[in-house]
Amino acid sequence: MLDGTGVRADTPIPPSSWASDPSAQAPVKFDPKAAATGLKAAGWKQVKGRWVAPGGSSAFRLQLLAPNASASPLVWATAQEVDAAWTRFGLTVDLEGMPPADLVGGRLQTGLFGAAALDINVGLDPDLYPLLASTQTASRSNISGLQLPALDALLEAARRPASTEVRKQAFKALETDLAANLYVLPLFFRDEVVVLSDRVQGPAPRPISDPADRYWDVLTWRLASGR
Questions:
Q1: How crowded is the C-beta side of 16, counted as CA atoms within 13 Å?
Q2: Residues of 211-225 as b/e, b for ≥16 C-beta within 10 angstroms?
Q3: Does 195 score more than 70 pLDDT?
Q4: What is the pLDDT of residues 103-138, one digit of tens each?
Q5: Are 181 and 26 in contact (CB under 8 A)?
Q6: CA distances from 175 to 56, 120, 149, 222 (A)
Q7: Which phi and psi (to 5°) does residue 163 adopt?
Q8: Nearest Cα to 105, choosing from 136, 77, 143, 79?
Q9: What is the reported pLDDT for 136?
Q10: By three-state DSSP, how is residue 15 classified?
Q11: Do residues 76 and 116 touch, judged by C-beta distance below 8 A?
Q12: What is the pLDDT of residues 21-77, one digit of tens each?
């Protein structure tokens, strides 16, 4: 789907970021057998190939929201892949693509959804506080409603001003917790590919987290002369 322009994600912290620590990441395996075992242990059962929730009598329906194809072709295609994988597993999925304004304001921020496939830019100096902190449930940037004091402390420590080494240790502790508990399930990090003419002098290679970042040193650019 990415045609080689992306990498697998096991935590929400990009591997290209200085804050990423491979030793704190645990690969999330695609293991339908283990998932089925877990559901059965939690009281779920399968009826005619469909999963039924504990105490239920019919197939459990899971709603999956995403930006529609015109708003974000890549995210919509990703949501379709998730829908297909969950359906093969035995879940009954209702996939709905929506315009961004309706998706965010009408569903995500009001909590009227079961699951959502979204494109989130956390940056190369990642700050996950708005996405996961308890205090952000009121503003609804924490759309999951997650409220865990222990996680809040890790999020605050990672964003606190300090030396690079201290912040790396704080991010390692946060990343370890994120990998162990999977509050969100990251799928991939998309690469931003920039094509630059050799007639332009001055740009320096560096990781970017957003297409606009390619202009960070634009004031040093010059057109090569004599061509």
A1: 16
A2: eeeeeeeeeeeeeee
A3: yes
A4: 999 999 998 999 999 999 888 889 999 999 999 998
A5: no
A6: 36, 17, 16, 41
A7: -65, 160
A8: 143
A9: 94
A10: coil
A11: no
A12: 999 988 888 999 999 999 999 999 999 999 999 999 999 999 999 999 999 999 999
- Own/partner contacts of 139-145, CB < 8 Å, gap of 24 or more, are 140/108, 140/109, 140/110, 140/111, 143/108, 143/109, 143/111, 143/116, 144/183, 144/184, 145/111
Distance (Å, whole) CA 41 – CA 157: 36
Contact present, 13 and 126 (Cβ < 8 Å): yes
């998932």: which residue's tokens? 35
Residue linked to tokens 């004091």:
149
Token pair, residue 140, equals 């609804």
Name residue, tokens 């959502």. 116
3-state SS of 20-78?
A: CCHHHCCCCCCCHHHHHHHHHHCCCEEECCEEECCCCCCCCEEEEEEECCCCCHHHHHH
pTM attached to this predicted model: 0.82
Name the CATH superfamily, with its identifier, for domain 6-191. Dipeptide-binding Protein; Domain 3 (3.10.105.10)
Q: Which helix (H) or strand (E) element contains residue 6?
A: strand 6-8
Predicted confidence at residue 226, as pLDDT, reads: 59
- Could you read off the pLDDT of 70-109 as tens digits, one per residue? 999 999 999 999 999 999 999 999 999 999 999 999 999 9
**Beta carbons of 208 and 214 less than 8 angstroms apart:** yes
Extents of the domains making up the chain = 6-191, 194-227
pLDDT of residue 209: 66
Distance CA 112, CA 103 (A): 10
